[in-house]
Sequence to fold (1330 residues):
Amino acid sequence: MSDIVEKTLTALPGLFLQNQQAGGPAATKASFSSKLGGLVRGITALTSKHEEEKLIQQELNSLKATVSAPTTTLKMMKECMVRLIYCEMLGYDASFGYIHAIKLAQQGNLLEKRVGYLAVSLFLHENHELLLLLVNTVVKDLQSTNLVEVCMALTIVSQIFPREMIPAVLPLIEDKLQHSKEIIRRKAVLALYKFHLIAPNQVQHIHIKFRKALCDRDVGVMAASLHIYLRMIKENSSGYKDLTGSFVTILKQVVGGKLPVDFNYHSVPAPWLQIQLLRILGLLGKDDQRTSELMYDVLDESLRRAELNHNVTYAILFECVHTVYSIYPKSELLEKAAKCIGKFVLSPKINLKYLGLKALTYVIQQDPTLALQHQMTIIECLDHPDPIIKRETLELLYRITNAQNVTVIVQKMLEYLHQSKEEYIIVNLVGKIAELAEKYAPDNAWFIQTMNAVFSVGGDVMHPDIPNNFLRLLAEGFDDETEDQQLRLYAVQSYLTLLDMENAFYPQRFLQVMSWVLGEYSYLLEKETPEDVITRLYKLLMNDSISSETKAWLFAAVTKLTPQAHSSNLVERLIQEFTISLDTCMRQHAFELKYLHENVELMKSLLPIDKSCEEMMVDASLSFLDGFVAEGLSQGAAPYKPHHQRQEEKLSQEKVLNFEPYGLSFSSSGFTGRQSPAGISLGSDVSGNSAETGLKETNSLKLEGIKKLWGKEGYLPKKESKIGDEMETPPVPQENVTVENVDQVVTKRDQSQILTQSKEEKEKQLLASSLFVGLGSEGTINLLGKADTVSHKFRRKSKGKEAKSEETTSAQSVTCSSFSSLSKVACEEDDYLNTLQEREEKELEKFSLSSQLLDSESLTELPLVEKLPDCSQPAPSLFADNNMEIFHPPPSTAASVAKGISLASLLEETTEYMHSNLMDVCNNEAVSVSSYKIWKDDCLLMVWSVASKSGLELKSANLEIFPAENFKITEQLGCCFPVMEAESTKNFQYSIQLEKPFTEGNISGFISYQMMDTHSVQLEFSVNLSLLDFIRPLKISTEDFGKLWLSFANDVKQNIKTSESQAALPSALKMLQQKLRLHVIDIIGNEGLLACQLLPSIPCLLHCRVQTDVLALWFRSSCSALPDYLSYQCQKVMEGS
Amino acid sequence: MIQAILVFNNHGKPRLVRFYQRFPEEIQQQIVRETFHLVLKRDDNICNFLEGGSLIGGSDYKLIYRHYATLYFVFCVDSSESELGILDLIQVFVETLDKCFENVCELDLIFHMDKVHYILQEVVMGGMVLETNMNEIVAQIEAQNRLEKSEGGLSAAPARAVSAVKNINLPEIPRNINLGDLNIKVPNLSQFV
Fold:
């Protein structure tokens, strides 16, 4: 009865509102549902923020009391939630209600549940701890027969869901993909997409189901799956080329109006769907002629159809244009697209104009003449009242800047810069101006003035690279030494005038730049003495508004100028004042200056004039202290232990769990145990090898005199006694050899670095010149002056460096070639033996079977043998025995030649490393490129073998790999062959190292070559890499495993059902060892321990246990993504077998 | 991906705040405030796109907004969304609101905050555009409403009562909401292009 009364009362809410104050207890209860109204009313009636705060605090307090009262019904709770949501929206903390929101979602009926879910999704975030309480509710609702409940659960899952709980709901959501209601299927697809975003590894196995969703009979579900494909294709387009046809067909149907009329929006068929599809096509067709050809028709159709004059058709047109310019170009389409851009740019509607400019900016790289066509509009847009349009125009101008128009464009940019106040815009623009100024500066004065403007406006917000680059440019100079000096002198003069200005305020960064330049280059001044400069610096040092960091710069400048100054009164005063400074850093500088000042000769040699670019010799290994250390040790001092070692010891003493990852230190300590003393000393040599010549002497000294106590990892206490023994008979010869080796290694590394650097440089210049070449070919243009092929005025890396790199490269090529020829002989000999061996086997085969059974592979290996005449001296007799002439190679196809050769060359590697199968990556009528991976211990070695198929020889064959985000790619062998004979094969090797863990990546590159008499041809390819390529066995002992296990925080457990055949643990482990390169450490009863590492050195441990037919895997690692990934891979391996 | 959907009135009072990427509470408020200031500065006759700046994810993110009578609808999106497409999506959202509330006005958004969220959930789910077909969205909402009626019976009354009260009280309602342009006119579409 009372229940009904209550219901009735709550049903009459607002009617009591007017006499709420007068109302009794019944009225208070009834007013629950309209409290929100009251609250809103109350808030809007207020005049100040302060009053609002007070009112809401009151409201929150009463809500707090209500929600925690046991008598509050769920229905009342529902109303409370809405009010809490309102308060949170206004920015007030309502965290006391979070748990009640979850409760409401758990316990309420449908409507209450809906409010509960909504509140949860608004209040909490993915990592909120309370969210775990929701998982069960979601699971329950996903299994519900009520569609609305399922919908709500799917919605909440796609809004917020804890990453680690995904496995709990994943199967349920997968089931929903087959649901009969399209709305459920659609939401399920989006929920899975969300999972893909937050934990890609966990949904890898359902990619096939996404394909099913793409083919769903309902358009909505298909459209939802496009979200996923857009994302995945953006990440890796090569994996989805096969779907191009489907996307084209879908788009054709949509454009052709085959969809139900329902999907029309202002009589345009499914515009959002079209936009999505066009984007996908753009990504797929990028740099891929074959794929692009598939879509030309439908793009043409889209361009033609989108004639209606409505907003949304322009959206489609814009995407179309974008796609046309993204894919492999077709002149007809480009023409039409260019016309469309014109329509956008000339449109009176601002939104369209904006997009037109954006499109122009995008296409300008391919077609600079388009900018010329619209130059008048562009100039108009420069003075547009809308700052957004203005900025887009500047972005466009930035792209077409060259040496002729740079002053105009930079001036426009500076104007805009002075007007804008938003930090983000300033940072962005300042970077661009600095870049342009550096690239195209017409003269010194302009350059310095522009940079002054940049520094004074950009000040302390700009990217630190800008001042750094500027200073480096000044210091390193460029081609002409006198010009360098002029530039420096001009900078010094302009800074002095700036500093002389009264009441001028400069940002700290600018002052730092000034002080450095003044400190280095004041000696160029003729009229003014160093004292004058010091006076100015002194004034700044005394200024309170200057930060202590800047003061340090200023002090350094003073220090540099002191040896040049004749009188030192001011310096002494400075020393006096700052040796009592409260700032310890300044005091330190002051004392340094003081002591240097006492010894002028030392000071002069320490602070030479204009030597900022020259490297100082520094003995980083501190070997000159070895004597001191030895003395200390002999007097009984405790040996030094590096920090991590001390920590380890402390931990092992205390028997406390170590929660910190061990990382590198662990593997290296394993190493030192086995190293010979010679190896140890080498370690220290390498570490301190910044100045080789200086060190070599100390090396030899060290060897004879002092004990080897210092290794790369620090002091080596364990080895002490042994080392002492060995000291009596110093292993001199061994030492020499190894030292040489190290030198070789070091120089090699240096050279490779220089090589890559200069290559980058080359690319940059190429890009710059190709961007603007032909831009002004019309010559009629006022704004966009004539095109010029002059590259950067100020080249960042000076000729000195280039010359150096040339020198080193030539030097390297000598050493390299000799080295490689040596190793080649060795390899080939190996190879040769292998082939022989194989041949013998084949021979046997041949005799036992019939002669025609000689398979193509062995045939194709013959040319290889013939190609190695130089190392076949011992062989002829053997060959003769085997009657080689009998199966002289018939003219086989080039592809199989390639295969044979690379297989043969594989053999040399296989003796040591595992490798993948040969894979065709690209080919055309003249060449075919195939690749394989060699999983070396320390890196992944990619080998591309290029085989020429035609009968003509190829000239200047060159293979280049684009730099990729996650990898460090280093070339192994020469990558350019001036001439490649007809039907031959060349191998290109690159070693790849991981810089950042990832799940799926790819690297791409191109091969370019010249056929006889024809133009050069370029062929692009790409190869997928998975994380698995970087997994290597980790060989550690069971004890180490135990220690490591406790130190890792990230763990993942997974149970896999195994078939009978795998039931035995050893066989399962063996499979993991083979397929995933895990190292089996130990097997104890029904448990197994495995370990692996992700290159360069992220360990991951695996603990397996077999229970009846379930294999329980338990991963731990210091890297959070690794266990997830490996568990998925293990699952795949076990299921796949 | 849509990063956030903000609706506020001409005075910067938030009416609907929905983030699809997690920001701490204070940052959310700051985003709302700064977005309001950015948008307020702009005339109605200049373009509807804005760069969000450093606040929301940097240059990859754009603010796309529309101004209807007393309300600003702002969508913050990344580069994977089409600007004009989103502009029309806002239109779809507003038209749907108009259909569901029969002549939608700012007050509807205040008093039926939860309902507006449910409608939005049918248009955008977890930052992805779920449905752009107005009839479909309205059908979903109506299905939910039917459920409300059938389940609630008596309990459905409060909502009706509230809307009754809302109308009764209109004259003395909030001072800073200008009654004159309370109604969001669903404009002739081409005018917004």
